[in-house]
Amino acid sequence: MTRIRLFEEKVNELFLKGEIPGFVHLYIGEEAIATGVCQNLRNSDYITSTHRGHGHTIAKGAQLKPMMAEIFGKRTGYCKGKGGSMHIADFSVGMLGANGVVGGGYTLAAGAALACKMQGRDDVAVCFFGDGASNRGTFHEAVNMAAAWKLPVVFVCENNQWASTTPYRTTTAVENIADRSVGYGIPGEIVDGNDVFDVYEKAARAVERARTGGGPTLLEAKTYRIKGHFVGDPELYRSREEVQRMMKENDPITRLKERVIAEKRLSEKELAQIEAQVEAEIREAEQFAVESPFPEPHELYEDLYVEGGVSNA
Ligand SMILES: Cc1ncc(C[n+]2csc(CCOP(=O)(O)OP(=O)(O)O)c2C)c(N)n1
């Protein structure tokens, strides 16, 4: 969680300095969800992500250097500098990609889960998506099909109360997105998205169910979007006081630290050591990205199609 938080604080700083091109959407305040879920996954399991994907990517085990380089648009990045923040993928750790298309991950996750089932593997796929994305048609199509075919997939809704400038309740009639599971005949469960222990435990049940042939689960992690929709968002649609209160009362990292200290699992000193180690990793990632070359113009048309048949990469 600290790695995600500090990485994104650095990305925020670098974007505001004008060093990063394109758009950046931050996951700050939602780290407990990606972390709690992905701790239940193996390298060979899959995830699909969103436009707010740095947290999912780090939690699934991607490396900070090629991530930072990709965000900078450099050739050493995961997508050779052509994807940027919203399209980082690392197939070697089962991270099938962040996605600029809202709701673009449902059918990819269902497809990955179908592949696992057809190949007789007990790997699973997890699909992360937002509350706004849950109103897209692809949600209903993918969840229905996955339920009917009992595919090993876990749908994780990150309900951060906002879809860009639109509050959740103005577009969604149901109190809880998890309640929609009833319509598809699968379990639905609400998770405290700012409590990594709660996320971990409920995700563990859902992943185990998927792995052992029980089919999909819909988890809804209740959280709050602390940052603007994107870096630079003037946030005219909500008050600064509301945001500050939510962070003060419910920061997932503060809650984690307080609990591990109270339960004597880690000391303040050990927590500070973790932070220092992560800060060093991030400094190295920044330096790597800054020193890496941009792709050449002629590389623009490379890697667009798989040549010579289907790739297993
Ligand atoms: C298909 C599609 N429609 C609209 C957009 C524009 N858009 C980008 S992010 C966003 C809001 C998404 O909200 P939510 O799914 O709740 O995710 P959050 O940003 O809160 O994490 C919208 C409408 C898009 N990228 N793709």
Report on this model:
It is a single chain. This protein is an alpha/beta fold and 313 residues long. It is built from ten helices and seven strands. The protein has a five-stranded parallel β-sheet with strand order 1-2-3-7-6, sandwiched between helices. Strand 2, helix 6 (137-148) and strand 3 (153-159) form a beta-alpha-beta unit. Helix 1 packs across helix 10 (268-291), helix 4 packs across helix 10 and helix 5 (106-118) packs parallel to helix 6. It is globular. The two termini are 29 Å apart. The mean pLDDT is 96. It binds thiamine diphosphate. Thiamine diphosphate (TPP) is lined by residues 50-52, 100-103, 130-133, 160, 162-164, 225, 229.
What's the short story on this structure?
With 313 residues, the chain is an alpha/beta fold. It has helices at residues 2-16, 31-38, 54-59, 64-72, 106-118, 137-148, 196-211, 240-250, 252-262, 268-291; strands at 46-48, 125-130, 153-159, 162-163, 166-167, 188-192, 217-222. The longest helix has 24 residues, at 268-291.
H/E element sequence: HHEHHHEHEEEEHEHHH
Largest sheet: 5 strands, parallel
- Globally, the shape reads globular
Structural class: alpha/beta
Mean pLDDT across the residues is 96
Strand proportion, as a percent range, falls in: 5-15%
Tell me how many strands there are. Answer: 7
* First-residue to last-residue Cα separation: 29 Å
Q: What order do the strands of the largest sheet run in, or round the barrel if closed?
A: 1-2-3-7-6
Count of alpha/pi helices: 10
Helix content: 25-40%
Bound small molecules, by name, code or SMILES, are: thiamine diphosphate
> Which runs of at least 5 residues are low in confidence (pLDDT < 50)?
none
Question: What Rg is obtained from the alpha carbons, in whole angstroms?
Answer: 19 Å
